[in-house]
Amino acid sequence: TATKPAWPMMHSSSVKIRKRHIIRAGDMFHMNNKFKKKLPPKPCISCKAAAAAGRPVNPIHGLKFLESETDFAFEGILPLVWSRSYYSDQDGTGWLGEGWSVPGCQRIIRDAAGLAYIDDHGRLFPLPEVDEDDEEPVLFESEQIWFSKNPDGHYVIASLDGSIALRFAPLVVAEDGSDE
Prior knowledge:
Elements lengths: L12 E5 L2 E6 L2 E4 L3 E4 L18 E2 L4 E12 L5 E8 L5 E2 L2 E2 L1 E2 L5 E5 L2 E5 L5 E4 L10 E3 L4 E5 L5 E5 L5 E4 L12
Antiparallel strand pairs: 1-2, 2-3, 3-4, 5-6, 6-7, 7-10, 8-9, 11-12, 12-13, 14-15, 15-16, 16-17
């Protein structure tokens, strides 16, 4: 419908859906030039999975994806859900091979461009430099997460409600001189 966009506001695209030519450009939504209105700001859905009309192929980005294929789940005090997702455009090789991601493979990396977070779907996005003295965490509205650094030097990524928090400690390498 004209009130609900088929994909996030960040992209400009043109596509035919149900015999109607829909053009999405910036923050305007046009439907056969009959409906023109500024869309309200809203959180970005995962860009890769946003246009799921052609499952398992995203027609806007031209990539193949399988989202949240659950293989098994164990209930208990510390439940374990083993699910996997595949994106044909994912850079790098995951634990299950090229394009595959599983929970637990999230990581923060530092390179020449600075810090970046790789989520459980293999998506990479830049993080700002934060100081442990910063009292307020940084909010990423599009991803619905908080990012901060605690006094121990560990980075923390948490859900909006704080129910899930991932703590990332720096990798320490010790060398004993034996080349092992």
